[in-house]
């Protein structure tokens, strides 16, 4: 019998930072069975930075819940399933500020997570987030509004549909070999254009020079979500 693990939460803020990634480099980063989803010859990779609150099992009602900051380095992928092409993302690693996804991730909580320290400076439309973990770090300063630019997506709406179609996130289980799918869904879906003030990612900065180039950023705010595995 398959046990479905799932939680519901309120998404305070989600930063979706995208890079144009060299296709050959992308292929070398993926496990067997997954291939990079290309847009104009580029793989689409990036970081998803999530601020969550009211995190609780799907069957628990009310306003009670836990809170966490999270980051996932990932790449858009496609795969074949019974003759049909599917699309989603492959997540290289998930990090969280909270103890419960680190202890129970991949067991009672969807997805394996590693512990990290986060610092968040939020104003009405500006979000500065830093993450430090063993061997990995991230610093992003993003402001909603302003001029939106992208070489991957013609409009913010196109970016929104691209992200919406990739709700299945594959990542390695605790054995480090087999893969687990985690699905993130929302009864509401609103994406806003934003512009980048600064960005540093130890993961993408460590790739060969020129292999990963920042493309664009969008923001999602104040939405209900469900994560299942």
TrEMBL record:
Top-rank lineage group of the source organism: Bacteria
Protein name per its UniProtKB record: DUF2071 domain-containing protein
């Amino acid at each position: 019998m398959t046990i479905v693990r799932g939680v519901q939460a309120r998404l305070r803020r989600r930063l979706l930072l995208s890079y144009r990634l060299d296709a050959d480099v992308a292929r070398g980063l993926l496990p067997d069975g997954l291939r990079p989803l290309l847009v104009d010859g580029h793989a689409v990779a990036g970081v998803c930075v999530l601020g969550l609150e009211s995190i609780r099992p799907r069957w628990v009602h009310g306003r009670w819940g836990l809170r966490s900051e999270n980051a996932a380095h990932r790449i858009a992928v496609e795969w074949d399933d019974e003759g049909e092409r599917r699309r989603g993302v492959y997540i290289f690693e998930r990090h969280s500020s909270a103890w419960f996804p680190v202890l129970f991730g991949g067991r009672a909580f969807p997805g394996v997570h590693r512990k990290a320290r986060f610092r968040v400076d939020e104003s009405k439309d500006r979000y500065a987030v830093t993450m430090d973990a063993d061997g990995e770090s991230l610093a992003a300063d993003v402001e909603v509004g302003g001029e939106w630019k992208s070489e991957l997506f013609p409009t913010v709406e196109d970016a929104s549909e691209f992200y919406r179609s990739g709700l299945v996130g594959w990542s390695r289980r605790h054995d480090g070999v087999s893969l687990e799918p985690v699905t993130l869904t929302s009864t509401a879906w609103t994406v806003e254009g934003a512009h980048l003030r600064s960005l540093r990612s130890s993961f993408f900065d460590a790739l060969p020079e020129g292999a990963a180039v920042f493309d664009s950023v969008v923001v999602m705010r104040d939405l209900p979500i469900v994560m299942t595995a």
